Amino acid sequence: DGGITQSPKYLFRKEGQNVTLSCEQNLNHDAMYWYRQDPGQGLRLIYYSQIVNDFQKGDIAEGYSVSREKKESFPLTVTSAQKNPTAFYLCASSDGGQGYEQYFGPGTRLTVT
Amino acid sequence: QKEVEQNSGPLSVPEGAIASLNCTYSDRVSQSFFWYRQYSGKSPELIMSIYSNGDKEDGRFTAQLNKASQYVSLLIRDSQPSDSATYLCAVLILTGGGNKLTFGTGTQLKVEL
Fold it and tell me: Is the CB of B76 inside 8 Å of chain A's CB atoms?
């Protein structure tokens, strides 16, 4: 089955700890994206990558880091510098076709206390 | 002004009726427009994409685009309780650093028996 997987589904961490969220796709898509979703605020772009070994900051990159060493994988690290890390994190990918349609993974719900 | 605006709802329609969801956007050069459906606690699912002025139909869904008025809509015919969800409008923004989707905050649709 082709698709995007994110793990884990739920993640709990203490304040001050870094945490890495996994995103893997087997769709052979070049572009990958990370969003966070908070109630009433829609989806906000954290980082995106159009090609392996290259990535750009999105609208809310502060306190986050990413890597893109393989086409299939785009992990997101939430660092202790992120002031409000509790959120629903969504990974998406796109093949850059006509409209750059993006397809989402199931998401990871992170709670930091 | 927000880049993509939607009425947050909730929009309530009786079963079998037509649901009409609306979205306006501010970037005149946007070329690609998308509608996502998001059930509570789940990730967004792409249901329609539209790139040129006019209507595009897919089953019970019709997307309508008017670039002159910077307006895109989604009609759902014969609404079913299973259509109850939040519908996100997304607009593709072309930038020097890549192509990004900007999302509205979503309209909650409730289909009542």
Answer: no
Q: How close does chain B come to A15, measured CA to CA in Å? A: 24
B6/B12 Cα distance (integer angstroms) = 15
**Would you say A101 and A1 are in contact if contact means Cβ atoms under 8 Å apart?**
no
Instruction: For residue range A9-36, list pLDDT tens digits in order.
Output: 999 999 999 999 999 999 999 999 999 9
Cβ-defined contacts of A4-7 (< 8 Å, 24+) = A4/A91, A4/A92, A4/A93, A4/A103, A4/A104, A4/A105, A4/A106, A5/A105, A5/A106, A6/A89, A6/A90, A6/A91, A6/A105, A6/A106, A6/A107, A6/A108, A7/A108
Give Cβ neighbours of residue B47 (< 8 Å, ≥ 6 apart).
Answer: B35, B36, B37, B58, B61
Q: Across the interface, do A99 and B98 touch by the CB < 8 Å criterion?
A: no
What are the C-alpha distances in Å from A18 to residues A71, A110, B9, B29?
A: 24, 12, 37, 39
